[in-house]
Amino acid sequence: MASFVLYSILSTVFLYFVFIISRKRRRLPLPPGPKPWPIIGNLPHMSPVPHQGLAAMAKVYGPLMHLRLGFVDVVVAASASMAAQFLKVHDSNFSSRPPNAGAKYVAYNYQDLVFAPYGPRWRLLRKISSVHLFSGKALDDFRHIREEEIRVLVRALASAKTKVNLGQLLNVCTVNALGQVMMGKRVFGDGSGGADPEADEFKSMVVELMQLAGVFNIGDFIPALEWLDLQGVQAKMKKLHNRFDRFLSGILEEHKTKARQSNGQVKHKDLLSTLISLENADGAEGGKLSDTEIKALLLNMFTAGTDTSSSTVEWAMAELIRHPNIMAQVRKELDSVVGRDRLVSDLDLPNLTYFQAVIKETFRLHPSTPLSLPRMASDSCDINGYHIPKDATLLVNVWAISRDPNEWNNPLEFRPERFLPGGERPNADVRGNDFEVIPFGAGRRICAGMSLGLHMVQLLTATLAHAFDWELADGLMPEKLDMEEAYGLTLQRAAPLMVHPRPRLSKHAY
Questions:
Q1: Is 69 in contact with 57 (CB distance < 8 Å)?
Q2: Cα(172)–Cα(187) distance, rounded to whole angstroms?
């Protein structure tokens, strides 16, 4: 009897404390934010360029905001300290993606690496990509491919007789470099980018994908309206998926056919051959790969792995053209380290201190993904005295953080010196360790292709700055260059960079 009474007392005390804690937890407020409308919530408050609109909101409501988009709780982190709370302290709780139309209708129903739910399959895909494509050994093994594709681009620019769309040529170069690594062949012709309808078609597909992925789709936030497709987004996504699937299926079948015809006598060293071999072998964590998963991985590589790099280089070159004094310092360093008798190589990059600061400043001012890919809270949690509900969508405003006047002096000014000794961030790391500048994200879902992206951006930008003098098309003065941003998931220029390249090295260097 005594033990029963003691048990009852202990149970009552335990339940009382559970009740008090749960009440206290419920009493914690949601982060501040604009008052939502009935049903549609804060969707009317969203700006046509979301990262800019959310940055403006953060100035009113603070660096941690809560929005109600339809029936979905959305929290937005807009400062380095807030980003660190979500992507470092609470990273494990925010490692999955929320449901969205793009992953469902374009990315093979969440079977890709970018949108796959956090778990064994995602870890398998991540491991395959990390080991075979993005490891230090893989980057070294394929260094000659990157350098050769950039040399092809340089020759095309050196022979150009009229103005060129630099962004288009950069996209062809990055796609072909990745194509050589992925499947041992160029995707687009000879790589020159001249009158190539396939290259133009692919670029348009990637741009459309980034635009659609950046849309705040009503069906994602009010599920009962998904079937109506009020914005026409889902229909466009399905059509775009069919175009991508034809492109990727053709690549996959061509590779399999060649493998069958060789009867195993030809040993491919590209990633696609490795992926195909994993269709018949058990993976380390989660089983075999399917054709669909392979195509979904290819989709990630040929979209996120190319457009982000080419657009970042385009921004870097635009800034260098706008700032002749910075371009002069970059060239002085390049001429000192590389000379004028050859092109820049991967091995030169660690010796280019000022140039590395230019790249960091480009990533700061023009992050390729200004609004992070959404994450989802697996469980409710408390951050900085606010309650974050379970299943809430997290957005990290990378663009706002990198322009935060509390973190950066004169944040809108392009000033590479801030990353040099004596500057405000001399040791800043863009690889997700310093939350003031996180162009690739941070934590478990940091960009898988970060290392390759860094190498491509650095080598392409250094080569273009070193090998050519640049004039803007149509007599445009550098200070008049349009630096407006286009709408989309990635940070595209609103107006393409149209230029005249003028060779400045010894003729044999080209």
A1: no
A2: 8
* Measured CA distances, 1 to 4, 8, 13, 14 (Å): 5, 11, 18, 20
Separation CA 310–CA 129 (nearest Å): 20
State how far the Cα of 487 lies from the Cα of 55, in Å rounded to an integer. 15
Q: What is the DSSP annotation of 174-205?
A: HHHHHHHHHHSS-SSTTSS-TT-HHHHHHHHH
Rounded to whole angstroms, the Cα distance separating 203 from 197 reads 10
Confidence at residue 19, expressed as pLDDT on a 0 to 100 scale: 44
Contact between 453 and 446 under an 8 Å Cβ cutoff? The reply is no
pLDDT digits (tens, 9 = 90+) for 465-482: 999 999 999 999 999 999
Query: Which residues, listed in sequence order, are joined to residue 69 by a DSSP beta bridge?
Result: 41, 72
* Domains of the chain from N-terminus onward: 101-365+414-437+447-509 (1.10.630.10)
Look at residue 258 and tell me whether its pLDDT is greater than 90.
Answer: no
3-state secondary structure 366-422: CCCCCECCCEECCCCEEECCEEECCCCEEEEEHHHHCCCCCCCCCCCCCCHHHHCCC
Instruction: Quote the CA–CA distance of 124 and 229 in Å, as a whole number.
Output: 34
Tell me if 447 is assigned to a ligand binding site.
Answer: yes
Tokens of 211: 């635009």
The per-residue pLDDT for range 23-77, each reduced to its tens digit, is: 444 569 999 999 999 999 999 999 888 999 999 999 999 999 999 999 999 999 9
